[in-house]
Amino acid sequence: MADAFAFRLIATDGAARRGEIVTPHGAVRTPAFMPVGTQATVKGLSSDEVRKTGADTLLGNTYHLMLRPGAERIAALGGLHAFMNWPRPILTDSGGFQVMSLSELRKIDDKGVTFRSHIDGAMVELSPERAIEIQTLLGADIAMQLDECIKLPNTQFELERAMRRSLNWAERCKLAFEHAPLGRALFGIVQGGDDIALREQSAKALIDIGFHGYAIGGLAVGEPQEVMLKVVEEITSILPIGCPRYLMGVGTPDDLIEAVARGIDMFDCVMPTRNGRHGMAFTRFGPVNLANARHRDDPRSLDEQSPHETARTYSRAYLHHLVRVNEMLGAILLSTINLAYYQELMAGMREAIERVRLTDFRAQAREGWARGDLPPL
């Protein structure tokens, strides 16, 4: 195991970057997609199954693990890596997204957030210091600052207020993180909504504070894709070249390609697993709705050229059957197929960047999505 966090830039293609993040639990090839393991599990999948899709790292959630089973309990059991049998790197979200998604169950001020637990109604406090303490107890290789994430569109007053509160919390998180074990990393989170000037203020202030990496939060929360990409393009241009850049909670395959082309290194999103649980597969031919009756007599696999065995093995007719009868195996197989496709997409972009062919790769991907999955006549 490495005893220090590091980021190595391997190749570039325009603004796109191919790199490697080194952590105490191994290396992460970038651009990287992190499956979401909110409750110490990627829903329905074992750690071995997640690894077989090609994932180098995954994401856990501070808020949810704080409530159940508790950070102190996980620490006593050897930390999150041992608890969920995932020996690879882990990044933990600080709970900032729940500040937005659970807005009806929380009160917020400059000190922190008080949540009424969605489980039993108990009152729990999450301050910047407690968020870092929890992530340290969990043993996260990469911890995130606590921030205030707000929905878009929003008022200028609210955008600036939340951005400045997030900066205050960033400073407090940095101080609290000084006692973290060697090799752990802390990322700051750029806020400011869809206001470029506020985003630039946030990014520059975070750079002055100094973090191991920088995330762009508060996007994919209601704004159009072009707005998101404009923010990404402007902010990546001022973030340090030698640090990883993480676009939080994004997104569709097209979002990933476009954000990589603008300099993003890391992503997470529930989309591949959530959509898989609802009968939707992501493929080289675009999204495929397995609940559709047209698949009931189709013996073809989803993608006979996929590097992932599951996508090559099971027929569309069988997957359709599993979805229609609400069999849990259907959700498991489609979640696996979707994660594997996302990892295939990231691997393809890494190779394309090294060959300075990302523009060609993007065009080929879009051509496949546009062609669709219908059999030739």
Which structural class matches the secondary elements? Answer: alpha/beta
Can you list the strand order of the major beta sheet?
4-14-13-12-11-10-6-5
- Biggest sheet descriptor: 8 strands, parallel
> What's the alpha carbon Rg, rounded to whole Å?
20 Å
Residues in helices, as a percent range = 40-55%
| Average residue pLDDT | 95
- The proportion of residues in beta strands is 15-25%
Any idea what the shape is?
A: globular
In DSSP terms, counting alpha (H) and pi (I) runs of 4 or more, how many helices?
15
Distance between the termini: 54 Å
Unreliable spans are: none
Quaternary structure of the protein: single chain
Q: Give the number of DSSP strands.
A: 16
Q: How would you describe this structure to a colleague?
A:
The chain is of the alpha/beta class and 377 residues long. Helix content is 42%, strand content 19%. The chain has 15 helices and 16 strands. The protein has helices at residues 47-52, 62-67, 71-76, 80-83, 96-101, 128-138, 156-176, 196-209, 225-236, 253-261, 271-277, 309-313, 316-324, 328-354, 358-371; strands at residues 6-13, 16-23, 26-30, 32-34, 58-61, 90-93, 106-109, 112-116, 123-126, 142-144, 185-190, 213-216, 245-247, 266-268, 280-283, 286-289. The strands form four sheets. Strands 4-14-13-12-11-10-6-5 form an eight-stranded parallel beta sheet. A three-stranded antiparallel beta sheet has the order 1-2-3. A three-stranded antiparallel beta sheet has the order 7-8-9. Strand 1 (6-13) and strand 2 form a beta hairpin. The chain is globular. The mean pLDDT is 95.
